[in-house]
Write a structure and sequence with these properties.
Blueprint: E1 4-6, E2 11-18, E3 29-35, H1 39-50, E4 57-63, H2 68-78, E5 84-89, H3 94-104, E6 110-114, E7 118-120, H4 125-135, E8 139-148, E9 172-175, E10 182-186, H5 187-193, H6 205-215, E11 219-230, H7 243-258, H8 267-280, H9 285-297, H10 307-316, H11 324-332, H12 348-356, H13 364-371
Parallel strand pairs: 3-4, 3-6, 4-5, 8-11
Antiparallel strand pairs: 1-2, 2-5, 6-10, 7-11, 8-10, 9-11
Helix pairs in contact: 1-2, 3-13, 7-9, 8-9, 12-13
Length: 389
């Protein structure tokens, strides 16, 4: 891989440091790390990936706008390695776009995603992922247990599953999604589903990928025995207004349409968003998001889920959400993080991403954290707050 323009995205790419291609014809894992500033944390993430044992792995760092000093530090961490590469883009492609590009630079049999403010908890994390994929040929993706680096406790801002499953955070179970801060995807499943939908930019990209994989009869599992440590900052808060709420609503409605849901069928969800937005002071962004979803979904091929896939979603997710009254109370009426007294743990770069969103695309690496916090399936209602969605 040399510096130039990638036809698939039309974005100039600069090769900064490291090997321009994997050193093996066949190997186990590509580790994709999106970067934007946060040099100290990103260097630690790179070292965490390079220190993995028991597997062959190629570490791919995609920088989407770091300042020169930060980019230089990343280059120092990668330079001299024949099993790692650092590339830089001239613009931000978003979380799904950045991951798509990074994944295309390798050909390992599975792709591990690691947030740039996270580290693998143990040197055999990738080896455990390899064993998991080898043991289950129908496994498309797995999500790691995400813990707060400072305490080792579950990172509640990164719990993307039903709240009643939180006591099982150290166990393993089938699920309908994974949290992007630490995960792995079988490359065969990636190729089968076409990767991430780059139009999402941030928020819901993991859930959208999983829906398409499940529609093609793949499965997804949460693995509580594979741990990623997340360097969250409890003193920071991110507002659920403006661009974050906009992308949350827009993308979820767009995904519903992609799955063949009619506008009439999604009316309760859209009404729920309006009610929640009214309670949380961000109503003005909701009509804009709904209109944007309508425009995004126009002309998109609708692919209704097969009954087998719907049964999987019900078994792996919906059944854990509770009845309609429980969901109404926990999901629609609950206050958004930052408005309630429930701390939402985000990073400095997440704040920078939210501030920059009004004038242009936010940081891919920073919005990654924002996009990985809440997920819910077509059969569940809006859930934001202390519970997962």
């Amino acid at each position: 891989m040399r510096s130039g323009t990638t036809p698939a995205i039309g974005a100039p790419i600069r090769h900064i440091a490291g090997a321009d291609h994997p050193p093996w014809a066949a190997y186990d894992a590509d580790v994709v790390i999106l970067a934007l500033d946060r040099a100290e944390e990103t260097v630690a993430a790179i070292h965490s990936a390079l220190n993995q044992t028991g597997v062959s792995r190629y570490v791919i760092v995609v920088d989407q706008g770091s300042r020169p000093a930060a980019l230089a530090r990343l280059a120092d961490a990668v330079r001299g390695h024949d099993d790692a590469v650092l590339i830089a883009l001239d613009r931000n492609l978003g979380v799904p776009g950045g991951r798509n590009l990074g994944t295309a630079l390798g050909h390992g049999r599975f792709i591990a995603g690691l947030d740039n403010d996270a580290e693998f908890d143990a040197p055999d994390a990738l080896a455990r992922m390899a064993v998991a994929f080898d043991a289950d040929p129908d496994l498309a993706a797995l999500g790691c247990r995400i813990v707060v680096d400072a305490t080792g406790d579950d990172d509640l801002s990164s719990w993307g599953y039903a709240a009643v499953l939180l006591p099982s955070s150290r166990e393993t179970f089938e699920t309908a999604t994974f949290v992007g801060a630490g995960h792995a995807i079988r490359r065969a499943a990636w190729d089968d589903t076409g990767g991430y939908d780059s139009r999402l930019f941030f928020c819901w990209e993991e859930y959208d990928f999983c829906l398409r994989a499940i529609a093609r009869f793949w499965r997804v599992r949460y693995r509580g025995d594979i741990v990623v440590r997340h360097k969250v900052s409890p003193e920071r808060r991110v507002a659920w207004s403006g661009q974050r709420w906009f992308h949350f609503v827009r993308n979820r409605i767009y995904i519903g349409r992609k799955c063949g849901q009619s506008w009439l069928a999604m009316t309760p969800r859209m009404a729920g968003y309006c009610i929640k937005a009214t309670r949380n002071g961000c109503l003005r962004d909701t009509p804009r998001a709904l209109w944007a979803a309508f425009r995004m979904a126009w002309g998109v091929k609708h692919c209704p889920l097969h009954p087998v896939s719907r049964d999987y979603l019900h078994r792996a997710d919906t059944v854990w959400r509770g009845n309609w009254l429980t969901r109404w109370r926990r999901e629609v009426l609950a206050l958004l993080p930052g408005i309630a007294a429930i701390p939402v743990q985000v990073t400095v770069a997440s704040m920078r991403a939210m501030r920059s969103a009004g004038s242009g695309p936010a940081s891919a690496a920073a919005t990654h954290s924002a996009s990985s916090s809440r997920f819910f399936t077509p059969n569940t209602s809006v859930l934001i707050g202390s519970d997962s969605a």
